[in-house]
Specification:
extended; 404 residues
């Protein structure tokens, strides 16, 4: 092509040497420029922003993502992210590093199952469920008295206009929060003076009302004291001893209830150790010691071994003593070592030195005797010579055992 043809070609008319380069440098914006370039002939150097009208909006291209790897889910992310060149950590389920993970429930070493959220209400609605002290004895298994069929009584028969709202009395006694106490009332779990009430507006007199929740008596008299004493060997079961021997009052000197006038429920001879109940509740003390209520007492007896099989059956069937025939309610061999045997016996008799006399009658004198339980109350891990206050749930179970 000739030089003239090149100069007259369309490429040169708007090419590199034409006014197009001047437009890119801003030359097309000057007044009087003949070629408008991108301005579309509007002149004056102003861009026409309506030129792209009708075109779809296109967002900027996002940063390129790593492809998802199903075998290593933690490896996904941006290529430009920090640590992109490092190998991803393997995926682990929470708690998979704990010992016992993956074992079937119930097998040795398996993890304990977590309580389901649905059971939270069940545990929170227990009477005295949030109590910090005392032993958790659970529900009342055997009521102390037959309450008969449930009967809903009109509110007017239980209502005391000058009294306190029932849910408030329960909350102040430590049963549960006031809201939970209201739920207990609506569920028919509360008895006032032996009658079930399901109305929230009932008012009662805390000084005279007898209130049960799930069969557990609520003690509203704050002046009453209930304690457990783990009596050591050599201590006399009295508050004072004229001979100057160690007695119960010596161990009450460091207790906050040392000024109270307390009764010891029953007695233990000087050589016998273990549980002794102390209280200023005279009615409860009388019922616990009365033979008609048959409160069981559990003892651990150490005798010389070996111990023949037929002796246990003989103790359960009854042995004859100087004051009549006596028998144990249950007999269980706990441990046996060369020369010694440890036996657990349960009986409800409160006769003097009854356990020692029974074992003497079968030819196995007692070497050591410890009372570990009275009714539902046990020593547990309480150290010898110590005194502790009973929890409110324990008091309720103890009262239920004698029909209070």
């Amino acid at each position: 092509m000739t030089q003239a043809g090149r100069q007259g070609s369309p490429r040169n008319s708007s090419g590199r040497n034409g006014s197009g380069r001047n437009e890119a440098k801003g030359g097309a914006g000057r007044p009087g420029a003949g070629f408008s370039g991108r301005s579309g002939g509007t002149g004056g150097g102003k861009r026409n922003f309506n030129q792209g009208e009708g075109r779809p909006f296109r967002a900027s291209k996002p940063r390129e993502e790593r492809p998802f790897d199903a075998d290593n889910p933690t490896a996904s992310g941006s290529y430009g992210a920090r640590g992109a060149g490092k190998p991803a950590k393997p995926f682990r389920k929470p708690g998979s590093n704990k010992p016992g993970y993956g074992k079937a429930p119930g097998t040795p070493g398996a993890l304990k199952p977590k309580p389901k959220p649905g059971n939270a209400k069940q545990y929170g609605s227990k009477a005295f469920g949030s109590e910090r002290f005392g032993q958790n004895l659970g529900p009342i298994r055997k009521p102390g008295r037959n309450r008969g069929p449930r009967q809903d009584v009109p509110q007017s028969e239980l209502h005391d206009a000058d009294g306190v709202r029932l849910q408030k009395v329960m909350a102040q006694a430590g049963v549960a929060s006031r809201r939970v106490c209201e739920e207990m009332i609506l569920e028919g779990r509360v008895e006032v003076d032996g009658q079930v009430t399901t109305e929230l507006g009932v008012r009662v007199d805390p000084k005279t009302a007898v209130i049960h929740v799930d069969g557990i008596r609520i003690q509203l008299d704050e002046s009453l004291v209930y304690m457990v004493f783990n009596k050591p060997k050599g201590v006399v079961s009295t508050m004072e001893d004229p001979e100057g021997r160690p007695c119960i009052s010596d161990y009450l000197k460091t207790n906050k209830n040392r000024g109270e006038r307390l009764f010891h429920v029953g007695r233990l001879d000087v050589a016998t150790e273990g549980l002794l109940l102390l209280t200023n509740d005279g009615e409860l003390a009388n019922r616990l010691t009365h033979p008609s209520y048959e409160v069981p007492k559990t003892y651990l007896v150490q005798v010389r071994g070996p111990f023949p099989q037929g002796v246990g059956a003989q103790l359960k069937s009854g042995v004859e003593l100087e004051d009549g025939i006596a028998a144990v309610d249950s007999f269980r061999l706990v441990d046996s070592t060369p020369g010694h045997v440890l036996i657990e016996v349960v009986l409800h008799s409160g006769k003097n030195r009854i356990v020692r006399r029974m074992f003497d009658a079968v030819g196995f004198p007692v070497q050591r005797l410890v009372r570990v339980k009275v009714g539902p109350i046990g020593l547990g891990d309480q150290r010898q010579g110590s005194i502790r206050n009973l929890g409110k749930q324990e008091i309720g179970h103890l009262m239920a055992a004698v029909g209070l």
